[in-house]
Amino acid sequence: MPAPSTLRAEELSLGYGDRHVVDNLTLEIPAGKVTVIVGPNACGKSTFLRGLARLLPASSGSVLLDGRSIHSTPSKDVALKLGILPQGPIAPDGITVADLVSRGRHPHQGYFRRWTAEDDAAVTAALTATGTLELAARSVDELSGGQRQRVWIAMALAQRTGILLLDEPTTYLDLSHQVEVLDLLTDLNESEGATVVMVLHELNLACRYADHLVVMKDGAIVAAGDPGVVLTEQVVEDVFDMRCQVVPDPVSRTPMIVPIGRHRTGGVS
Fold first, then answer.
1. Which of 59, 66, 131, 199 has a Cα-to-Cα distance from 139 of 20 to 30 A?
2. Taking the model in full, what pTM does it have?
3. Is 59 exposed, middle or buried (CB count within 10 Å of its CB: 0-12, 13-18, 19+)?
4. In the predicted model, is pLDDT for residue 106 greater than 70?
5. 18: which residues sit within 8 A by CB, 6+ positions away?
6. Is residue 83 classed as helix, strand or coil in its secondary structure?
7. What rounded mean pLDDT belongs to the chain?
């Protein structure tokens, strides 16, 4: 895995047609760290991630990859430095796990896509890291949700980029598989030094796994930094319209959000 590249948004605005979603947003992604983006539905999290990955053109502003505009960088150069796993990817019918993961090697191959021993090694390493090596010959269609998500992550790992962007990688997974996926991404960050940026909905898991937490609302960044500093009771109420108490997670000692509703609050008012 190469050393992480730098990634920065500068006064970035994004939208769809006449609808503005992200407005004048500036953010430096910490290299070699795990950054998690959180916020209420439709606040611009996924749109921002797509903008960082060059999947969505900027209305104004720029995204800089190693100090150079990502939109003026050749596609192959971008693919060698930055990988993305979008939300709800769809595999071709009948494709095997090994074939899908091998697609992560396309940016590394020449014009005629000549396969090399290095490609073989990268695919095997990605399958091993994600615990999917024994699934290599199976059809992706046959896999459970958790297995399928690990296979998609294996494809992203096989690309061997210094930056990995993931849009809600734990969506539709049960809690045990959510933790499994987040542990895997943390292993990747710690063992390879990769920069990981992901959108998550679950605040407590976001706080547990993030080195750097970005909180968004209405297309803007409300707060960014260490989860223990950023996620206060007032920020949660202002952003998510939810009263809560913030207490230490008994396992990780990171912030844990305890919602306060109208019922079963034990006398909290």
1. 199
2. 0.88
3. middle
4. yes
5. none
6. strand
7. 90
